[in-house]
Write a structure and sequence with these properties.
globular, 6-stranded mixed beta sheet, Rossmann fold, alpha/beta, single chain, 12 helices
Length: 279
Amino acid sequence: MSLCQKGSWELFRQSKHVGGRRNMEKIEKKKQSSTTVLQSEKLIVQFGGLKAINEFSFQLTDRELHFIIGPNGAGKTTFLDVLCGKTKPTSGNVLFKESLSLGKLYEYQIVRKGVGRKFQAPSIFPSLSVMSNLEIAMKQQKGFWHILRAKLSEGDKEHIHEMLSLIGLKKESNRTAGTLAHGQKQWLEIAMVLMQDPELVLLDEPIAGMTEEEEEKTGELLRTIAKDRAVIVVEHDMDFVRKFADKVTVMHEGTWLCDGSMEEVQQNDRVLEVYLGRR
């Protein structure tokens, strides 16, 4: 069973000291002024006789870049599906901003309440320009007819240009989105999610298929995004997780296995037992 796309869990464990202290210090600074944004309690998602998520409890604080890791089938993507309303929990609850039960809302309602999700494959409008993609994303929250008829204010245009600068595509604003490189398409879709001004951003394997340079830029982008909102990332690349995570949660067979800094996770006896057969 492989958890990593790049190297084995054994390599992940052996490199445990890289970047650990820096991330621990970063976490402690955030803890001093953070509030709970998301909390799940004994969450269960069952498909027939299979429990994809089994009494999973989780907590996320504001301005936290939180990675969820685990092997295929661990329940990571299913958990994101619950958070965005795509899948309803069988039992248990997920609270957003301490009082809003996400399990009772439809997908469009969850988006309007401040949760934005980017799926693994980019879903941009390939025949439109980069600028037009962001314009549509900005107008979506106001309804279909607004997309067709509304004109952008100067403030809207300024916001779009700020977003283009954030993702490094300001010079590509008039370029057809379908001609962008893979990494650029991913950044564009992240920007489209941000145009809705979510308080919580969900990302599923955002660096899949990227070059090393694109991965680095994506990591720095996520750090910037997490300065003023919470971010959950499902990821298999342990090098990337180790370098950019504030906090890591490990899932196994739908359950919570452990959480903490990357260094703490790599030294956890339960993780070593499950993935390496150590006792």
